[in-house]
Design brief:
Keywords: Signal. The protein is an alpha+beta fold. It has a domain of 183 residues: Cupredoxins -  blue copper proteins (Immunoglobulin-like, Sandwich), CATH 2.60.40. Helix content is 19%, strand content 12%. The protein has three helices and nine strands; from the N terminus they run H-E-E-E-E-E-E-E-E-H-E-H. The strands form two sheets. A five-stranded mixed beta sheet has the order 2-1-4-6-9, with no helix packed on it. Strand 1 and strand 2 form a beta hairpin. The longest helix is centred in the last third of the chain and has 24 residues. The protein starts with a helix and ends with a helix.
Length: 272
């Protein structure tokens, strides 16, 4: 009975004198969505909900930048160019063509390619093990809408591979001014924070580079905004600035109040 009363009076003192409550649990950052398309720029979500590209089949004329948005979900994915005949296999260089583009396995980044020949389809897949064959995680750009080489036929061919999908080695991004068939990817995956093109995306500045894109600039909305140094707020920064309403004086008053109320409670209980 005595301990219950003391606990009750201590709780009342905490509420009355403003002893600060414990800090709230941290909230996980939301996964950014790809922004809406704009003239000359198409955006595609990667594995936003399930193992799929969204949209998985798009049309894009020459010069269009197509940006793939990778979520920071703890599971890496890729945008790896392939062929209609071999949907789950990286498109290697031949004597007549260059190697295909490849973002490499990544997360929390954006990867941009620029369309060079819109008269020919571009096929791609995610090379994370089982994502292509077992889940049909493939996509296309400028695929025919009729005939035997449609996107649906391409995805069906990937699903037919199933568990027989061969694991692909990940050596990081394959990029360069001449890398890619019917499209080029000259900049490695980077986090622009707003879906904007990296400054060197359409140029050859990043040719054969394995590094990231341009460093984030001060205009990047993803960068933390500078904090105001004006009047003190209700939170105590602990930096020696002017005392706030939750400073040492308030804590001492709360402690004294709690002790007095607890002592008063003991006297009341003794008289009962």
């Amino acid at each position: 009975m005595l301990f219950a009363a003391l606990f009750l009076f201590s709780s009342l003192a905490a509420a009355q004198y403003g002893i600060p409550p414990p800090p709230p649990a941290p909230v996980a950052a939301a996964v950014p969505l790809a922004p809406a398309d704009s003239p000359g720029h198409v955006n595609i979500n990667v594995a936003l909900s399930g193992f799929a590209f969204s949209p998985a089949n798009v049309s894009a004329p020459n010069g269009t930048a197509v940006t793939f948005w990778f979520p920071n979900s703890g599971l890496e994915h890729s945008v790896t160019q392939s062929s209609f005949e071999n949907p789950c296999t990286y498109l290697a260089a031949t004597s007549n063509t260059s190697a295909g583009f490849d973002s490499g396995l990544t997360q929390g980044t954006q990867f941009t390619i620029v369309i060079q020949d819109d008269t020919k389809p571009i096929w791609f897949h995610c090379k994370q093990i089982s994502h292509c064959g077992s889940f049909g995680m493939v996509g296309s750009i400028n695929a025919p809408t009729t005939g035997s080489n449609t996107f649906d036929a391409f995805q069906a061919a990937a699903n037919n591979i199933g568990a027989g999908e061969v694991s692909e080695t990940d050596n990081g991004p394959v990029i360069g001014a001449t890398v890619g068939v019917n499209a080029v990817a000259s900049v490695a995956p980077t986090n622009t924070g707003n879906g904007a093109l990296p400054s060197s995306a359409p140029s050859s500045a990043g040719a054969n580079s394995q590094g990231g894109g341009a460093a984030p600039s001060a205009s990047n909305p993803g960068s933390p905004a500078p904090q105001s140094s004006g009047a003190p707020t209700l939170s105590n920064s602990g930096s020696g600035a002017s005392p706030s309403t939750t400073g040492a004086g308030t804590k001492i008053q709360a402690s004294v109040g709690a002790l007095l109320l607890g002592f008063f409670g003991m006297i009341v209980l003794a008289q009962m």
